[in-house]
Specification:
Mean pLDDT: 74
Number of helices: 5
CATH topology of one domain: Nuclear Transport Factor 2, Chain: A
Strand order of the largest sheet: 2-1-6-5-4-3
Radius of gyration: 32 Å
Strand content: 25-35%
Order of helices and strands: HHHHEEHEEEEEE
CATH class of one domain: Alpha Beta
């Protein structure tokens, strides 16, 4: 009886030790992160910068050639746009402005372009755009071409391997100068002579103001 009891205890203890050994061996190591997921590789910043600069520098061509298809591809459907006058824009309106051809004759130049790469799929681009319009004004008896300058901040996200603009805001660059001299009006309130100006959309293209028609073009003397 004692011999049978000793054998039973030995088998039970042996089984318990084996269970403890294999049970511990089968538990995952929480410190072994390589076993669960591979670390994301660092972004190739030079390559991303080159890609986004190529997209931004293509805007003068898009405007000149009225390439609405390029805007359709580049802008995300859910893009958030803020124009220089504070109004909100849409992708559909941007495409309409480009395809209208109203801006095709106004040369544009993009400068001071800086790309801030956040990760493999996100980046922010800051730039300056100069737009030389074909409208004129007389200053001290001379004809002067109006030049518009804007600053833009564009947010890009890579979706399905393609970079798309998901947000953009543009503000006018206001050069300091003398204040305009007010002229009296019948109501007694002053009003300044305002030259025709254009409105820049969030993607470095310029759209006409949706407001009353500007004064007629002055013929150069």
């Amino acid at each position: 009886m004692r011999e049978y009891f000793s054998r039973t205890m030995l088998i039970a203890l042996s089984g318990g030790v084996a269970l403890m050994f294999f049970g511990c061996a089968g538990q995952p190591n929480p410190n072994n992160t390589n076993a669960t997921a591979a670390a994301e590789p660092p972004p190739d910043k030079p390559a991303i910068e080159a890609q986004l600069k190529a997209l931004e520098y293509d805007w003068p061509r898009i405007v000149k050639e009225r390439d609405g298809t390029a805007v359709e591809k580049l802008e995300a459907d859910d893009i958030m746009l803020v124009y220089p006058d504070g109004s909100e824009g849409t992708k559909e309106q941007d495409i309409k402005d480009i395809e209208s051809g109203d801006l095709a004759s106004d040369p544009q130049e993009i400068t001071d372009l800086t790309v801030n790469v956040l990760d493999n799929n996100t980046a922010i681009v800051r730039s300056r755009t100069k737009v030389a319009g074909d409208r004129y004004r007389i200053v001290d008896g001379k004809c002067e071409t109006i030049l518009h300058e804007f600053r833009s901040v564009d947010t890009f996200v890579r979706r399905d391997g393609q970079w798309q603009m998901v947000a953009s805001a543009t503000v006018p660059v206001r050069a300091p100068g003398p204040a305009p001299t007010p002229s009296p009006t019948p109501g007694g309130s002053p009003s300044a002579n305002v030259s025709p100006r254009a409105k820049a959309s969030a993607v470095l293209k310029v759209s006409p103001l949706r407001a009353p028609s500007p004064p007629a073009k002055t013929t150069p003397q």
